[in-house]
Amino acid sequence: MDQVRLGVIGYGNMGRSHVKYFDQVKGLKFTAVADPDPKETELLVKEHGVKAFTDGYELINSGEVDAVLIATPHYDHPPLTLAAFEKGLHVLCEKPIAVTAKAAQETIEAHKKHPELIYCGMFNQRTSPTWRAVKRLIDEGAVGELIRVGWTIQGWFRTQAYYDSGGWRATWKGEGGGVLINQCPHNLDLFCWFVGQPKRVTAAQVGLGKYHHIEVEDEVNALLEFENGATGTFVTSTAECSGINRLEIVGDNGTIIAEPGKPVRLLRNGTPTREFLATSPERFATPSRDTISIEPGEKDPGHRGITENFINAILHGEKLIAPAAEGILGLELGNAMLMSGLKHQPVDLPTDRNAFEGVLQDLIKNSTFKKREVKNTGAADLAGTY
Ligand SMILES: NC(=O)c1ccc[n+]([C@@H]2O[C@H](COP(=O)([O-])OP(=O)(O)OC[C@H]3O[C@@H](n4cnc5c(N)ncnc54)[C@H](O)[C@@H]3O)[C@@H](O)[C@H]2O)c1
């Protein structure tokens, strides 16, 4: 095979954004699209000569594709993924790979039965030069044993108009959550990519519809604890417009401070912190320290980078940047934060996946929320929002 016939399932905001760069991806042949509204895909049929379907499962069963890119609302990701594997198709799934860790696990188990297929998650922030620099430093041992990690993420500001733009958005039934399941899957994935999954969410505060007319969370403050005693904080909101996005990873050997758009700073300790504090005879001394500033520089290939990597993995066995199976770690961490915040109690990881399913089903069953009239303002330009 020298070309991968790719079908896009879900031609909304994100499906459209993906299609725009397809002609730049070597080895990708765009052959099919599925969306319930044929008017939306009419132009694609004319311009790209693709086959259009009104349902993702029709596309999967059509024989027109070798691989699918799933860009529907989240709850549909696992059943479409399972159907694609059954049909012997490679899967590139938008984030999150599922709404619950339980559903994600089912896709991972199904994939194990088809190891010849590629299963990739659209965790496009893994290609960001800033986050790649952080990952490289950690892998090189620049931080050493983790002491503390803190991430304040206020770059996900969303208006009420955004939440009103789709019937499924920001409802328990249609989306399964708010900022943790829609915007933060990127950060939760990176968080686990950098420092692993904590063992416990010791406490989380989640604000349900605190700043917007929605029923799901638009603010989260979570305290975390790691196996070695290291601590963490994860703070986010869709109602703060500062754009602050600051990650601090503190370890025995050094500290990383990263903010997209700025150089990544590594504060290196001359002597590991713990050794110094235990052995220094001085009362107010600190370890010697130097600062390295890393200019990320390179351009971020973003979504195209992940799609290229997916195609190259199929055609040439290239190593995946974002194997979908890794997506369960951040997803489960988000599930745990939500459960901790709602129940006002600590939640251990790995979580009791049935317990979270129960919590979510209760939220759906007991929902009395009335969504405002959905305003269909057409597809939005997502550039700069992810
Ligand atoms: N990676 C990123 O940076 C990023 C950014 C935005 C959205 N997303 C993800 O993309 C997904 C879609 O988000 P969106 O903003 O594009 O939503 P959207 O509502 O704009 O688009 C979803 C589309 O899927 C269609 N659809 C629903 N069920 C379908 C089915 N069974 N078969 C075919 N089409 C179906 C809908 O009609 C709609 O056109 C979400 O999971 C979201 O988290 C990812």
Protein model, in words:
This protein is an alpha/beta fold. The protein folds into two domains: 4-125 and 301-322, Rossmann fold; 127-299 and 330-365, Dihydrodipicolinate Reductase, domain 2, CATH 3.30.360.10. It is built from twelve helices and 15 strands. It has helices spanning 13-21, 38-48, 56-60, 77-86, 101-112, 129-139, 160-163, 185-195, 273-279, 302-316, 327-343, 353-365, and strands spanning 4-9, 28-34, 51-53, 67-70, 90-94, 119-122, 146-153, 200-208, 217-225, 231-237, 245-251, 254-258, 264-269, 289-294, 347-348. A nine-stranded mixed sheet has the order 14-13-12-11-7-10-9-8-15. It has a six-stranded parallel sheet with strand order 3-2-1-4-5-6, with helices on both faces. Strand 5 (90-94), helix 5 (101-112) and strand 6 (119-122) form a beta-alpha-beta unit. Helix 4 (77-86) packs parallel to helix 5 (101-112), helix 6 (129-139) packs parallel to helix 8 and helix 8 (185-195) crosses helix 11. The longest helix is centred in the C-terminal third of the chain and has 17 residues, at 327-343. It is globular and about 75 Å long. The mean pLDDT is 96. Nicotinamide-adenine-dinucleotide binds next to helix 1.
